[in-house]
Amino acid sequence: MSHKGEFNYREIITKAVCGKGRKFSETMHHINPSHRPSSILGCWIINHKYSAEKKGDNVEVLGSYDINVWYSYNKNTKTDVATQTVTYTDVIPLSMKDEHVLSDEMDVMARAIQQPNTLEATISTNGANVDVQVEREFIVECIGETKVAVAVDPNGILDELPKQEYDDEVSDEEFERLDPNFLHGELDK
């Protein structure tokens, strides 16, 4: 049964996701330790901070993090940690865009689905620095005002639809088949 001709449509202004994008990045950073490194013992990234802003059809994510390189020096007889704060800019194109957005003013949300992570840390060819390869990945969403159309039934047919009744009772037979240990293994984890 079609009510296509009987419905009126009403436009509603609402906030919705009007743009989405995703980007994976790999970056090489060059760390300058205080001593000439003999070997790399470890590398980790902390204090990741970022913000996002819409620029045309892209979102710019501006961020920073601290790279910590634990290394040995003096022919592997001593160790030290070199710490360096680095900054980055990731330009993320919006792959999904709503052309019916009402205003250029949008809220931008960015989420790091892959926090900055060290892929590899090696002593550079000059022997004095450490080259650190880092990966990161972001998803961004732009939320703005847009219009949606909803059908309004002038006959109020939705009020006349039969109410569906649900039977929440468990029969004796179903109760007997219940396994009392069903969740037991899950609770021990």
Question: How is this structure best described in words?
Answer:
There is one protein chain. This protein has 189 residues and is mainly beta. It has two domains: 4-150, no CATH class; 154-187, no CATH class. Helices cover 7% and strands 62% of the residues. It has three helices and seven strands, in the order E-E-E-E-E-E-E-H-H-H. It has helices at residues 157-160, 172-177, 184-187, and strands spanning 8-31, 37-55, 58-73, 78-93, 96-97, 107-123, 130-152. The chain has a four-stranded antiparallel β-sheet with strand order 5-1-7-6, with no helix packed on it. A three-stranded antiparallel β-sheet has the order 2-3-4, with no helix packed on it. Strand 3 and strand 4 form a beta hairpin. The longest helix has 6 residues, at 172-177. The two termini are 52 Å apart. The mean pLDDT is 85.
Identify the overall geometry: flat
Largest sheet: 4 strands, antiparallel
For the termini, the CA-CA separation is: 52 Å
> Element order, helices and strands?
EEEEEEEHHH
Radius of gyration: 29 Å
Spatial arrangement of strands, main beta sheet: 5-1-7-6
The average pLDDT is 85
DSSP strand (E) fraction? over 45%
Quaternary structure state of the chains depicted = single chain
Structural class: mainly beta
How many domains? The number is: 2
Measured as a percent range, the helix fraction is under 10%
| Tally of DSSP β-strands | 7
Spans of at least 5 consecutive residues with low confidence: none
- How many helical elements? 3
